[in-house]
Fold these 3 entries.
Entry 1:
Amino acid sequence: MVEWITVFCIFSKDGNWNGGLKSAESWGRTISAEWLIIDTTRIPCGYVTCPVKVIDESEHACELFAGHTHGVAKDDVTIAPGVGWALFEIKQ
């Protein structure tokens, strides 16, 4: 993947730096670019999770999930990303 969209993919899902490549071999030819080149297998997901402790009458171990969670069909040919969040209780 190349061009401006790669600025959103400079870190892997583990927080490692994906950037640095400005030229790469593809289909037997060298591609050079002004923007970073990111291998499509290294594109991070568009969401994050984190542990949350909910305390009401008792304590509940939970996981918060937030980010690009779904797609929305705008018409017969257009899909837009949907942003949302959810809180899940983790059963022990």
Entry 2:
Amino acid sequence: MTIEKRTLTDACHTLGIDPKTLKRWLAKAMVTPQTDQYDQRRKWITQKDFEKVQAMIANVPISPRANQQFHIEMLRTQMEKLEDRITELETWQMRYIKL
């Protein structure tokens, strides 16, 4: 299973904030961005860390566009989890039928 990553640029666009603001929020949430192994200039955070920052700043209003993108991404994530669960259940069903 791969770790879902977000570049800091992507996180800024999603939240509708300036990179300096994101860096301050990351520091408050005690999240350290990781460096890309192929390009030291690129920094990223895990989806879990991104959600941690989002939860921390939930009281800070964000732009409507960023809010819409967030909901779209949340729906995509939920769809992926449902698809994985369906696959898992189908696998178990096939095992059960063989018994």
Entry 3:
Amino acid sequence: MARGFLSKGNKVKVTVFFRFRQLRRPELGAEILDRVTQQLADIAVVEFRTRGMEGRQMTMILAPNGSAEKAKRAHAASEAAEAEVAAPKVLAAAPVTVPVAEPEAQAEKADA
């Protein structure tokens, strides 16, 4: 799921929550964050990571690296091109003047 967000150019926040006896083993949480970093190394870089525990949790923010941002721009460009093809083109029309008959002239036509 994180790979999908990163490929679209979004950031991902990864949080490991500790409960009860898990609080005594923060190194296991650090290993989990390291594994996530390794698995997403091809499309993401670590923007922020807590040095230790923040209360009962460890947090890390992943940002897309340059290749993911290029993919996002290419995706946006292709969507724009598709929208342009699908949308009907509106051409600017020249102003049209419609002659308006005077009320007296309309009354004369009605009487005739």
